[in-house]
Amino acid sequence: MKCKIEKHVNMSFTGSNVLAQIQDNSTPNIDLLVRESIQNSADAILDNKEFARINYKVGEFDTELFKNMFRKFEYIDENKLDNYGKYLSISDENTTGLLGDHKKSKNKPQNLYNLVYDIMNQTGKKSDAGGSWGIGKSVYYRFGRGFCIYYSRTLENNEFIDKLAIVFIEDENNENNIIINNNNRGIAFFGDIDYNSENEPPMPIYDRNEIREILSIFKQDLYENEVTGTVVIIPYLNEKKFLKKLNDEENYWWKNDFSKTIEIAIQRWYFPRLQNKKFKGKYIIVGIDDEPVKLNHFFGQLQKMYNGDDEKSYHRKIRSKNPKIDLGDLYIRKFESSELFMNKPYSYPDPLTMLDLFNERDDSLPIIGLTRSSGMITSYDSKFRNASLNDNEYLIGIFKLDKEEKYQNERLEEYIRATEKANHKDWQDANVEKFPQLSDKTPVRKIFGQINSVIMSKYKISEVEINDSSDSKLRKILGKLLMPPSGFGDGADVGRKKPGENKPKATKKKKSVILQLGFENGRLLFQTSTYLEESDKIDFVFKIKSGAKTYSFVEWINMGFELPCKLYDMSLSGLVIGKEKIKGSKKILFETKMGDKLLAKSLKIQFLKTLSGIPYGISMTNVNIEDEVIKIIFTVSVEPLDSTYSISIDSSIKKDLEGEYK
């Protein structure tokens, strides 16, 4: 085995570049690994096979034998490797394997080159692919010490070929690095020397005996007979590192077991294709330590919806009127907790927990899984309207993009995939260079709009719940007057009790109720209502949701990050409900002078800004001395600059005891 350490040259990428490629702080790394690895296998299923077998395995390996492979290399310090370690292997069968070699070529398949050698390659050619060797493959190097072993058996030119390559990637800026060459960029390739091309990386090892010796360190056998496929081995698996984030959530019963976490992630993202013979395409059989993963009750219900076999689901063709085409199919259903086995004796976690969305949003929002023909759930999107749900009810839907439909002469499948990020998440309309004729079109917006229409027509809230101390007559007046304008949803973004909790005692509270989160003209819109008595002061502060945590704009900026959005303007309308039922409204733009503004002679407004002048919220105080109740509706336009993160708005009410605005 030979080694080539990549040296710094102009415009070259480095190990630190590779490790930072997937800019996704909201999806757990285990989920990213599962999504990438399964899709890579699913994209490579042989034409004459109905399914692929994929297996994840965790085990211990002989670290001394592993380190011995590198002792002869001058610039590799194997003594910095631990004397004990586990490995993770991901193998598949009934796939083509890694076709091609270590050189870039336009005239033959180059799966091996794209996955192993061209690490920063971003796109694949198959429009219906899910992974296709994009830069999402860099996730492999996050799980161990930086080594990744690729073994594959292929059938090329009627000949079965075994090949093995090893890649090592680390952050070249770290002090305790394994590569000790001062001019290295944190990347090393291991294989056999190609004597005809010294500038190329080492070619793979083709000798079956040498491959067998390396694989034996990890108790892995060679493929035999006519079986083709690929094995990816990650030595020095750091299990605890990737389970640590789950320790705060008691509801994650799989939280402390790496294999069980993988098992749930497999179902979370691939229930449409997992052991599903009704899948329109080639399905997959996935195992953990050679035991097939079986869908639990929750994901089994979702697969029935996906197949159109759930009689209780509502089915709607999602269509575009201009142009007149079918965009896809929506299956949606309101579930009771008992139907999801959340009650004893089963005690399944609630859907937000099963889908790892527990800390991201309120459970009154619908859960809509988006999927293309690849059979992987792209995301469980939250860009939809609130629904009218009782305690222990959940609205769940599956949207299946039409694979063959064309939008302005381009396949929807191809357009949507071109807008996805490296982690294959998040549908959005974009000005994609490959589709200049679609730069002013909005198929994704049409899809979301139609789904929202279904939610509004079948599951909308008829009245806004009012929580204050006024009498029933005033409640009725407010319920009619304070509905949001046409085009917005009706659901209040207020929490519902979790299963098993006792109902809280009735208390007299004044609340700020967030009515709507949606899109209009490409901007993210918030709408809220609040009820203020004399001297009540309410602050509305924008927040950023990143994974399981939420940060205010100020906290985010103080951590040194750029805001993932840009605030544009704020429109306010006010209703004062009292003896004379005064009504008033005024529009205030961010371009106006930041300061106190008077609204309907009863409310003073102050924009909240950082020291550098970035608006992050608004503060309002009721200065009406007659103790009247005020209703305020305001809409804030926000342009998302990075849709990896979601934006929310939070509020708090307190008395202005110091008379700050009087």
Give your account of this protein's structure.
With 662 residues, the chain is α+β, with helices and mostly antiparallel strands. The chain is built from 13 helices and 27 strands. A hairpin with a 4-residue loop joins strand 10 (314-320) and strand 11 (325-336).
Characterize the biggest β-sheet.
Answer: 9 strands, mixed
State the end-to-end CA separation. Answer: 80 Å
Strand content: 25-35%
Class computed from helices, strands and strand pairing? alpha+beta
> What do the pLDDT scores average to?
75
Q: What's the arrangement of strands in the largest beta sheet?
A: 1-6-5-4-7-3-2-8-9
Low-confidence stretches: 130-134, 461-511, 578-596, 657-662
Helix content: 10-25%
Rg (CA only): 28 Å
The count of helical stretches stands at 13
Principal-axis shape: globular
Could you give the count of β-strands? 27
Summarize the structure.
With 662 residues, this protein is an alpha+beta fold. The protein contains 13 helices and 27 strands. A hairpin with a 4-residue loop joins strand 10 (314-320) and strand 11 (325-336).
Tell me the layout of helices and strands.
Layout (H helix, E strand, L loop, with lengths): L1 E6 L7 H5 L9 H14 L8 E10 L2 H6 L17 E8 L17 H7 L29 E10 L2 E11 L14 E8 L16 H9 L12 E7 L3 H5 L14 H13 L12 E6 L2 E2 L4 H11 L6 E7 L4 E12 L14 H4 L12 E5 L5 E5 L11 E9 L4 E2 L2 E2 H8 L23 H17 L12 H10 L30 E9 L2 E10 L3 E11 L2 E4 H6 L6 E13 L5 E6 L8 E3 L3 E7 L5 E8 L6 E12 L5 E10 L7
